[in-house]
Amino acid sequence: xxxxxxxxxxxxxxxxxxxxxxxxxxxxxxxxxxxxxxxxxxxxxxxxxxxxxxxxxxxxxxxxxxxxxxxxxxxxxxxxxxxxxxxxxxxxxxxxxxxxxxxxxxxxxxxxxxxxxxxxxxxxxxxxxxxxxxxxxxxxxxxxxxxxxxxxxxxxxxxxxxxxxxxxxxxxxxxxxxxxxxxxxxxxxxxxxxxxxxxxxxxxxxxxxxxxxxxxxxxxxxxxxxxxxxxxxxxxxxxxxxxxxxxxxxxxxxxxxxxxxxxxxxxxxxxxxxxxxxxxxxxxxxxxxxxxxxxxxxxxxxxxxxxxxxxxxxxxxxxxxxxxxxxxxxxxxxxxxxxxxxxxxxxxxxxxxxxxxxxxxxxxxxxxxxxxxxxxxxxxxxxxxxxxxxxxxxxxxxxxxxxxxxxxxxxxxxxxxxxxxxxxxxxxxxxxxxxxxxxxxxxxxxxxxxxxxxxxxxxxxxxx
Length: 464
Fold this sequence. Notes:
mainly alpha, 3-stranded mixed β-sheet, two-stranded antiparallel ribbon
């Protein structure tokens, strides 16, 4: 569901746009609303926007109103193609929001140069024209998004993004429902996130109809954490940060949103970042889940289970250990003696198997791994076409040549990646090689595998 602020009430509605938006975080249903009708003097309105100082641009944020704007639409609105946008989605939002506030667009466009003033104004209590509330109430959190591969752990007085708790009682001394007038500092918090590829959301909605507020003004440790992370960010560090988000994502949208952000500021760095992303080891979650459900949890004892894990990793590779760590953490609620979703009795709890492998188990976050699920890599490849970059296409063709050499009667991991490359490279000068792969693998694979159906569908996409 997508949440929109309409007047003074948060209303949730089912989406009708492209399935590519599946990739946006499920909890991230409302980005800070950043459309407004600015009240400008004649002198201000005629002044070239690039000549306006960051402080003057921030002064204009008091005019932001509550005509809701989804995060992906905001990305599209600043004149760049979002890696996840479809034409249908972009048109839908363009028609809905009108002209975005140029001050916001300019602050984001300037990137690192805007950060000092944005950080300085995190405590700015001037009220905007946004009133945040929800049909099922408003809660006040202290969440901060981060990529642990890059930033390490969070301070103790802020929560992991999407894992927060209501701190209304700590902030206000009670938990009664209340509206919240979003301040300039809150908007600055969100804009910093847009620059550094983090979901810093001062206002977001959840499917239950609750509006969640993450305000650096109401919870100063948020402002302090943001300042400590980004106050010394240079252009070169920013560039490396975004490349790292792509090459070492901690979740399935970090790399794609990072790709868009990198392309906005440093387009020359995109091909190498894509290349680094595509060399990540991969695992098939279906194989991992099948092993865990059908074999591992049914082992007679812990020692046997540990030997089974060793054999599984030896036969499949270390990426499958990473996949198994995530699967064990995902199934952490299963108890020994309990029954799984298929009605089978679990002999060994996933936590008992996980503990020797990772040591400390974080109940809120899965173990940090540096491998990627095949489907996530395939989706990443397919969205590269939105960049319309010959240099990126060349990287993808190199990946196709690497992944398309499989010789087996079973459709495997490399085949899925090669198929994703076919979709991205179609009608870009490589159709002969792409079609040859589809024909060959369609003949080689048995009818029981995915190969014949997948290659048939791919060939159909080429047209007559």
